[in-house]
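To whoever is on call:

I kicked off a structure prediction for a single chain this morning and the downstream step that reads the tokens threw a length-mismatch warning. I double-checked the sequence; it's 131 residues and nothing unusual in it as far as I can see. Pasting both halves so you can look.
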Amino acid sequence: MTAVAVGAPGAELLAPGYRTVGLVPVLGGVLLHRAGTRRFAAAGTTVEPDGVPSALVENGVFALTRNPMYLAGVVILSGVGLLLGGGAPLVLVPVWALAATRWYIRAEEEALAARFGAVYGAYRSRVRRWL
């Protein structure tokens, strides 16, 4: 994002004096990520994207989103984009979300469906992928 902000900044969405507002989503994203990893640890399952899940976590932040750690990435990157002034750096946020969905989330969902079957299907129908 920094390279884009310097090399092709695009429109400035926030004046330098207001950019610190980006700290709010950065902190929120860090807390969201931490909440997700703590739930995984409490359940004794892996946080590794290519790991073998040993438990289906449906409580805490996982009752609101199936992918709180990836959502945290979106929130953190959005905050960094604001810290950099917005514009072109913020274009990278949906690119990252699409890449995460394509290369990680879909594979994780397949692994969870194979491992937990109908229980995962019910969870999937109840809780959205992102929000």
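Update from on-call: the warning came from a stale cache, not from the record. Cleared it. Sanity check on the structure: The chain has one domain: 17-47+57-126.
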